[in-house]
Design goal:
By secondary structure, the protein is mainly alpha-helical. About 70% of the residues lie in helices and about 0% in strands.
Length: about 130
């Protein structure tokens, strides 16, 4: 994996994807994008949507901060073990999310978000495998 994907591609790829996903989730909360197309099409109420989307925003914000720290763009102390653990959690979450998107009710999740989470999984794996500086 380390030779197939450059570290720079993994970093900037994840930063782009995570930033775009955050914008997407904010647009869902603002009802600009209908919530029926997220979470496998299984959300039934506006209250559920706000709860689920809030969790998504928090998790993706943490992931974004971790990638920024791993890239040494954001310096909030030296936490290589914590960063590596979170990167491995990202790998697992993106892998499970990819599987979940394959079984989504909506075609948007199947066709757009399945490859997006698969790529995010590979990028996270690339960074998780990298030796700390």
């Amino acid at each position: 994996m380390k030779n197939l994907i450059s570290e720079r591609l993994a970093i900037y790829g994840l930063l782009s994807i995570l930033s775009s996903v955050l914008i997407f989730h904010f647009l869902v909360i603002l009802n600009i994008i209908p919530y029926q197309i997220v979470w496998g099409g299984r959300i039934k109420t506006n209250t559920e949507m706000v709860q689920f989307e809030s969790v998504s925003i928090i998790v993706n914000s943490v992931f974004l901060l971790v990638v920024l720290m791993r890239a040494n763009i954001l310096k909030l102390g030296n936490h290589p073990v914590k960063i590596r653990v979170i990167l491995w959690l990202m790998v697992i979450l993106f892998f499970l999310n990819t599987i979940g998107n394959l079984f989504a009710v909506t075609n948007l999740e199947k066709l757009l978000f399945t490859p997006l989470t698969a790529i995010s999984c590979m990028f996270s794996l690339r960074l998780a495998l990298r030796q700390s500086r």
